[in-house]
Description:
Keywords: Membrane, Transmembrane, Transmembrane helix. The chain has three helices and no strands.
Amino acid sequence: xxxxxxxxxxxxxxxxxxxxxxxxxxxxxxxxxxxxxxxxxxxxxxxxxxxxxxxxxxxxxxxxxxxxxxxxxxxxxxxxxxxxxxxxxxxxxxxxxxxxxxxxxxxxxxxxxxxxxxxx
Length: 120
């Protein structure tokens, strides 16, 4: 009925899905996996931002009649960013050896992009 107060049974909250105080915590390997996901995710985001910055720098240089960083460098950064994002999706969605391998793949892609795009 409108305006009536609900019964006590209707206001109880089901807490059976909450973690009990005695529940086990994730092991050190699981914590290390989360740390890896966060670390390589940050590196991937940085690579994407760097690629976008280079695209903007190239377009701005072209509008002023200058050469800019060059389309080869820009394309390499874009391809590296796309590859890192694809590997990061594997890191985020999988567990175990496959996720670790993809995380190492992100580090390899980032290292190659930085080596060939900046240090060579």
